[in-house]
Amino acid sequence: MNDLAPLLTPEGRALLDEVRDTDPAQELAVATRLRREHPAELVSAALGQARLRQRAVAKFGAEDAGRMFFTPNGVEQSTRASVAAYRARRMAEAGITSVADLCCGIGGDAIALARAGIRVLAVDRDPQTAAAARANADALGLSGLVEVREADVTDVDTTGFDAVFVDPARRGGRGRIFDPEAYSPPLSWAISAARRAPRGAALKVAPGIPHESVPEDAEAEWISDGGDVKEAVLWFGTEPGAVRATLLPGPRTLLSRGLPDPQVRPPGRYLYEPDGAVIRAHLVAEVADQVGGGLLDATIAYVTADALHPTPYATAYEITDHLPFNVKKLKALLRERRVGILTVKKRGSAVEPEEVRKKVKPQGPHAATVFLTRVAGAPAMLIGHPA
After folding, report:
1. What is the Cα–Cα distance from 202 to 225, expressed in whole angstroms?
2. Could you tell me the mean pLDDT of each successive run of 10 residues in the chain, 387 residues long?
3. How far apart (Å, rounded) are the C-alpha atoms in residues 55 and 68?
4. pTM (two decimals)
5. Which residue among 67, 129, 266, 285 is least enclosed by CB atoms within 10 Å?
6. What angle, rounded to 10 degrees, do the helices at 108-115 and 40-65 form?
7. Cα dihedral 344, 346, 350, 351 in deg (nearest 10)
């Protein structure tokens, strides 16, 4: 799909409605039939857009995805709607009424901001991407709050806006970019833009950003949705130096209290697997404090405790067995207990879960979870089930 314009015509929109639920296996037959009545390029564009909309359902929901317009990169790189809505809500609650959304992509964040009642200037330098953002604001009835501008964000004057939101490109020709200064635009430029904003700013960065790259005057927040870490956000104008992990849905937020690393201790009856956002935010100590536990190993984010203390920030498992790493012993134990539903997790082990599953060949009606990890530096297996 090289041009959205034909899809925005009455013929294009009607064709999009017609191919909305096309099964990929039937595309060739559908395309052949439709090309008898419509230009081949329009049919191809409509079918391509239908595929993108189907992929976008996971991020935007069926209702919005079925009305929006996407580019392949836009589907891949756009913010999940639940995360964008959470961030927009934080801005609205801070009293922000206007935002310059720099590197807006197909407009996912601009949509969330507008739905929170915030006026948005959405900027992207790619013509096709900007066209998609404009079409999406219109399709969702938000064009009165969203102005889309095709421009280089470094040339945009954000004077007159309460805040800026910057989502730098973190992918290049070779894949993901891990150096924040290799973002486009670089993180240092985004930080400068954030500091100029009168009411605050939010910078979306990769969740793997080194903590030492976080400016002292920023708050750092790691966000997960449904247990999957989605992003980190650097906030300006909020709580300088604060570090938090936020779990969606909820939201539930765990704030750093600057606790020292937990002590290493022998395995207890329960193992706690912290949420990925908690781990990225370096808040495992806060979880260990909540559950009265310690670490299995000084370098691994598994918490162990003698008592069950439910917490939203970690998944608890009751441990029935603690063995040195030995696949043959594991296979024998699982056969004895007739375990056929086996979940294998690993942290601090070079062994791949699928490799273990193939070797132990689980069979039977019962379920178990196996943790491949280290206990006080030694390779170990812990066997249990969700508490």
Report:
1. 18
2. 81 92 88 92 92 94 95 91 97 97 96 98 95 96 97 94 93 74 89 96 94 95 96 96 96 97 96 98 98 96 97 97 94 95 94 93 95 95 96
3. 12
4. 0.91
5. 266
6. 40
7. -10
